[in-house]
Amino acid sequence: MHPMNKSPRSSSANSGANSFSATQIRVAFECPRLFYLGQRFGSMTAFLPPGNTSAIGNPFHQLAKQFVDLIIEEPEFTVLFEPPADGLDLEKIAARMQDLFYDLVFYPYLKSACAEDPAKAPALYKVWQGFRGLVRRYAELIAVNRRYCSAESAIAETFVEREVNIEHWFELPDRSRQLVKGQFDNLVFSYQSNSLCAVEYKTYSPADMSAQLAQVAVYSYILKAKKKRAVDSAVYCVLPEFKEYRYSWEELEKTLHQLIPHKLQQMQSWLRWESPQPNPPPPTAQPELCNICSQKKKCQSFFENSDSPADTAQLVGQGSVSGKDSGKGSGKTSGRNSGNTSGRNSGNTPGKSSGRNSLKTPGKSSDPGGQGDKQPNKKEPNKKNTNKKDTNKKEPNQKEPSIEADAIGYQLVETLKHFKIGADYLGAAVGPAFIRVRIKPHLGVKVASVIKLSQDLQVQLGIADPPLIAPQPGYVSVDLPRSDRQTAFFEDYIPLEKSRSNHLNPALIAIGVDLDGQLVEADLSDPNTCHFLVGGTTGSGKSEFLRSLLLSLLRRHSKEHMQIALVDPKRVTFPEFENIPSLYSAIVKDSENAIQLMTDLVAEMERRYQQFESAGCPNINTYNQNAFRPLPRIVTIFDEYADFMADKETCKELETSIKRLGAMARAAGIHLIIATQRPEAKVVTPVIRSNLPGRVALRTASEADSKIVLGGQETAAAYLLGKGDLLYQVGSQLHRLQSLFAQTIEL
Questions:
Q1: What pairing do the DSSP bridges indicate for beta strands 377-379 and 670-676?
Q2: Is CB count within 10 Å lower at the N or C end of the chain?
């Protein structure tokens, strides 16, 4: 049965107790807790950016309706459009429409309002500022329609309906019904696109544009049932400058319309909650909204004791939508500041997970006391844009739209139902390469029963690889690849800077970008990440990972602070770094020089420990704080380690050096990064593995190779997407990241 139904059942026993408004649906998308407070206590439910006020909303809507009435009824407006369509001067027409409206409607309203209360003048000035853009937009709509009909018909046909009360019964996933009511601002028609569009006015720039679109999408769905034809949706933001955010029916039908019945069912369940019961309505998935929330203090006090650790996992991404631009779809902005927006985020799907380790989003530790494994270092990416144009490029730390991600999440839950697996959808997070869907199996459903369905889900969801499924604290994650995969450009996260760090700064290396769009880094001075084993097959992005890792060191450290030793037997990974000043020695390309390099590093380590002993210092950090000539750290990046393992004698000598350096070199400021395309057991022996605590696995050729790199029975690396999709292991935790990509090498 279709999720939308035009008439209620004869019995209302299964229906929502009260009606919801389209505005309340918008608030529920923005923040479930604000929706709850508004329903229970009649609280104001708005996120107002600084400098905006709710005082102008009502007068603007009132005057906007009078403006459209005036256009239709006043003959002088028709006269403006009587010249041939090709000869219409849009700027002059808009200016004249503005003057007519000011003289006939706005000025009398202004005089009356200010006579009643002079303090209203500043707010009404803002209202007038907002009208300028709206007048021009309507002049443009009429002018375009004038090409297809007479002036009188153009005006009459453009404005179909305005401020009409509508209602609709929605059928919910649990087969109950919910009545939704609303009042849209305007319904306009375009001859050019032969389309109707439901319009909502906003007197401020919304904090969450897609939540605003959710409100208008409700109007479009109800109007489609009434008009028997598709209806697009648009939000007209009139302040601080006019912008139109428009989405076609086709876009909304594939994404947002699928979510509305699920959202209504969630709203019903949230309102059934009573304090101090567990599982209260979750907080917003966009914490920045709390800073501009009209009920911030009340929310903090009311829900202060409601959250329990078991609830925490459910709070992330719960029903969130984001209006950030993604450069996809045909959502448009128009007006003086035009650009592209999109409410779409495609999410076809991928890989599989098993074993003891769980895939976790970096920085979201399940160890509340902070005494467990050290979390990876995270850096807010630099938001500077490069001049390089790329359709796949993504602004650093940009939140991708999650409307379609939510639709995919609900589709996944519905698919699981057919396999007798009950689960709740908790939200989705969108990374550069994949969408992580969070589900919570119903009580009594074993996680293993979900994991074993990976191949069935691959078939049912129509995806190239089995989805990567893993248990998490409080939920199960299902990672699905994006069809519009984004690139994490190096320059966006570590720009070329003139200043360099000093000897006392951490030796951070870039690992990759997480689901929050933040750069995750490893500190080489940390015992858990002082040396690394890196594995990845052809096409995994291993070489690009090593290059970005190396470049992250060179961008931050001068040759006095950091020296680099490179081993590149295939001579293709580091050609641009042949002549960098920071080289410890010439790039090594054969086994004889590789053995000599490692021997030299062991000797350097021993020499440094003698210096530390003489100075009474335990490590390089303490020594450099007081030394007249501080010692530079030495980072050795050893690519294609397996190429040197064919000769037994070479293998033995290299292993001996790696064992000594791995066990002792950290405190001396010497670090190893050993990489291989073939992480086989005979290549990466237990001796090597035990002395390289940090692990990075890009896509491996087999599950066995994944186990070698990550340890234990972890096979997930065999199901990664390639091209920089990686797993970063810190202690017993795995973090799925996207490696940086350096288009050019600039130092």
A1: unpaired
A2: N
408 contacts 428 by C-beta, under 8 angstroms = yes
HSE, side-chain direction, 13 A CA sphere, residue 734: 31
Sequence ranges of the chain with CATH classification 3.40.50.300: 524-738
Tokens at 512, concatenated:
């990759």
CATH 3.40.50.300 fits 524-738, yes or no: yes
For the stretch 175-234, pLDDT in tens is 889 999 988 899 999 998 899 999 988 887 776 776 777 888 888 889 988 889 999 988
β-strand 670-676 against 434-441: which pairing, if any?
unpaired
Give CATH for domain 377-383+392-481.
3.30.980.40
Parallel/antiparallel/unpaired status of strands 633-638 and 562-567: parallel
Identify the residue with better confidence: 359 or 422: 422
**Coil, helix or strand at residue 104:** helix
- Sheet hosting strand 434-441, strand order edge to edge: 423-430, 434-441, 475-481, 468-472
Residue in 255, 267, 390, 399 with CA at minimum distance from that of residue 330? 255
Task: Give the residue range(s) of CATH 3.30.980.40 domains in the chain.
Answer: 377-383+392-481
Angstrom distance (rounded) from CA 230 to CA 219: 11
Ramachandran region of residue 728, left (φ > 0), alpha (ψ -120 to 50) or beta? beta
Cα distances (Å, whole numbers) of residue 171 to 191, 255, 260, 271, 442: 33, 17, 10, 18, 23
Ramachandran angles phi, psi of 267, nearest 5°: -60, -40
Tokens of 107: 């000025």
DSSP letter string, 606-643:
HHHHHHHHHHT-SSHHHHHHH-SSPPPEEEEEE--GGG
